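Quick one, tokens below:
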């Protein structure tokens, strides 16, 4: 079975007029050795989940938008909601994959909607989807999947800034969020918004446009890229 570990990372830049160049900043979350490993979760398949360190039934229920009662009903072996162990396999209720209004949108459009909901809460204008930037974001996600890496620097295209410029995208401000393993737009946005660096990119007042790329397959089953620009 495929194990999907969830990763996220962000990359951002600001203009540095004094130096006449771009000031680039890469933030590694928790540990450089773990390559931005954030609250690792292992999904065994569409409807099962392997308990990781730090997990609680409440946390798992929240992550998959189900109730604790639903989890207990589908896991009769669990007699106490407070007693789960690392490595234990949890059956997820079928309701967590219910087709609803959220899924009537494409995953990219759903991410955009969630981004702009968060920006609205902070009194910020919405970001516009940029087709050219989205095409680059899709290529980045495909590149991570096909070349089996998780990093802002691509072996094929270089840094996010080099990649954007190589495809003719100009900007004054630019940034990138990446993630791997999250099974849905809602799950990946939850991960990003729970991380200060990713949240800062999403709520950056200097950004005006966004490109979003989601692809499936590969080691982590889902690869996500948000690329932000502002002019």
């Amino acid at each position: 079975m495929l194990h999907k570990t969830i990763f996220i990372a962000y990359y951002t830049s600001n203009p540095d007029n004094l130096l006449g160049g771009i000031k680039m900043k890469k933030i590694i979350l928790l540990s450089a050795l773990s390559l931005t490993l954030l609250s690792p979760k292992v999904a065994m398949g569409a409807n099962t989940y392997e308990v990781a360190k730090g997990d609680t039934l409440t946390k798992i229920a929240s992550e998959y938008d189900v109730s604790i009662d639903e989890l207990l009903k589908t896991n009769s072996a669990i007699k106490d909601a407070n007693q789960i162990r690392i490595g234990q396999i949890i059956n997820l209720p079928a309701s967590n994959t219910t087709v609803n209004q959220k899924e009537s949108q494409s995953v990219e459009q759903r991410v955009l909607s969630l981004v702009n909901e968060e920006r609205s809460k902070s009194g910020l204008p919405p970001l516009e989807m940029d087709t050219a930037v989205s095409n680059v974001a899709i290529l980045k996600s495909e590149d991570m999947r096909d070349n089996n890496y998780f990093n802002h620097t691509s072996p094929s295209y270089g840094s996010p800034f080099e990649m954007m410029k190589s495809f003719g995208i100009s900007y004054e401000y630019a940034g990138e969020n990446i993630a791997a393993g999250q099974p849905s737009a809602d799950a990946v946005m939850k991960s990003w918004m729970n991380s200060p660096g990713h949240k800062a990119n999403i709520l950056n007042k200097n950004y005006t446009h966004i490109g979003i790329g989601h692809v499936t397959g590969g080691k982590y089953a889902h690869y996500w890229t948000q690329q932000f620009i502002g002019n």
